[in-house]
């Protein structure tokens, strides 16, 4: 923070589980002030203040409209159920606020493109909370790809598995009206972004199958993805895992191979990276510590850093997610150009 800079006044819209994680970083950032807590659930507002007693004098509101009128925050963190994101981001931009939106940015291509356009028109920072873009392990992989160390990517396999079905039974996550979808729309959104971010190529077509496992939303899905440059990808999402977590990415280039493997016992730590190059195996150690989405977002608002996951990340994930659902529904391969008419 530069001397003489005014505090950034941030409102939290949605004060459930992930908002507590964000707020516990946010309130410690010098020059940042949490000025409002919004949630229709008094229980969750109380839980937030119990979690961070320093917020006990912050005004609370049951809805965002009322809060925007009364407080006029500079910036808003949106941590609400998925299908509310578009409405809440649009409201924030209309009130002149910067936005950190939890994933997914929006549940449809149209809504994601609308947000991207509004962010461009207003000049406000809109960031999607894809924390893997800040993870040291994934950044090692991204840098190795960008610097050409593994040549051209031939195939990439992404595996995202959690005991999601068991953990979300009876919650909004299994209600399509609030979630917009199941495991793919929720945790799968992170790995869809990883796939698109690492390859940096437009998707051409998608063929997918989905299994709802006797719930109203997708639990398992497998997708075969072709990129316009010929790169092939396999994206496996399993929400019915008998253990807690598996996250793996295997990238086979023409000159080398990169692998990311999470530790199921410590899924929040950066994964183990294996890099094979010229017949040798490199295991990068002492990777830099994790930097939070909240810090990256505040730095972007202050013009002190790039927005690591701008709205276009949300548009691309919405395109891929929509194509996966559409392919599973129709039994046909789907061309991205058919579902995203505005195009890239
Ligand atoms: N980045 C990550 O790793 C990560 C982890 C968990 C959740 N998330 C995302 O965070 C978001 C919230 O998930 P969560 O786990 O905190 O869920 P949650 O159910 O714990 O919290 C959601 C909160 O939104 C509130 N809410 C509902 N309608 C609202 C409205 N109209 N206005 C304001 N608040 C409203 C609910 O009362 C609840 O307190 C989702 O987008 C989810 O995908 C991201």
From TrEMBL:
This is Oxidoreductase domain protein. The lineage of its organism: Bacteria, Bacillati, Chloroflexota, Chloroflexia, Candidatus Thermobaculales. InterPro entries: Gfo/Idh/MocA-like_OxRdtase_N, Gfo/Idh/MocA_Oxidoreductases, GFO_IDH_MocA-like_dom, NAD(P)-bd_dom_sf. Residues 139-258 form the GFO/IDH/MocA-like oxidoreductase domain. Gene3D superfamilies: Dihydrodipicolinate Reductase, domain 2 (3.30.360.10), NAD(P)-binding Rossmann-like Domain (3.40.50.720). One of its GO terms (molecular function) is nucleotide binding. It comes from the Bacteria. Pfam families: GFO_IDH_MocA, GFO_IDH_MocA_C3. It comes from Thermobaculum terrenum (strain ATCC BAA-798 / CCMEE 7001 / YNP1). Residues 8-130 form the Gfo/Idh/MocA-like oxidoreductase N-terminal domain.
């Amino acid at each position: 923070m530069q001397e003489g800079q005014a505090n950034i006044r941030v409102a939290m819209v949605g004060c459930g589980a992930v908002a507590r994680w964000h707020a516990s970083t946010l309130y410690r950032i010098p020059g940042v002030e949490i000025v409002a807590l919004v949630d229709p659930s008094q229980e969750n507002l109380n839980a937030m203040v119990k979690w961070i007693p320093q917020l006990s004098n912050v005004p609370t509101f049951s809805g965002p409209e009322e809060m925007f009128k009364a407080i006029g925050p500079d910036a808003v963190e949106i941590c609400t159920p998925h299908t509310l994101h578009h409405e809440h981001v649009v409201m924030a931009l209309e009130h002149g606020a910067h936005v950190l939106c939890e994933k997914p940015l929006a549940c449809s291509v149209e809504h994601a493109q609308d947000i991207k356009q509004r962010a461009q028109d207003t000049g406000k920072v809109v960031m999607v909370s894809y924390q893997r873009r800040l993870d040291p392990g994934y950044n090692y992989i991204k840098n190795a790809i960008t610097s050409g160390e593994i040549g051209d990517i031939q195939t990439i396999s992404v595996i995202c598995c959690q005991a999601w079905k068991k953990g979300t039974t009876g919650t909004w996550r299994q209600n399509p009206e609030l979630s917009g979808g199941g495991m793919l729309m929720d945790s799968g959104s992170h790995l869809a972004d990883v796939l698109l971010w690492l390859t940096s190529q437009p998707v051409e077509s998608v063929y997918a199958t989905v299994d709802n496992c006797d719930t109203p939303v997708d639990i398992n899905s497998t997708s075969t993805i072709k990129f316009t440059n010929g790169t092939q990808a396999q994206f496996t999402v399993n929400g019915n895992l008998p253990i807690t977590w598996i996250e793996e990415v295997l990238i086979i280039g023409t000159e080398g191979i990169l692998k990311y493997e999470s530790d199921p016992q410590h899924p929040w730590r950066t994964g183990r990276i294996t890099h094979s190059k010229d017949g040798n195996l490199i295991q990068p150690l002492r990777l830099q510590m994790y930097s939070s989405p909240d810090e990256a977002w505040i730095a972007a608002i202050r013009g002190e850093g790039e927005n690591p996951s701008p709205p276009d990340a949300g548009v691309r994930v919405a395109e891929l997610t929509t194509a996966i659902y559409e392919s599973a529904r129709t039994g046909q391969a789907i061309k991205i150009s058919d579902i995203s008419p505005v195009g890239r």
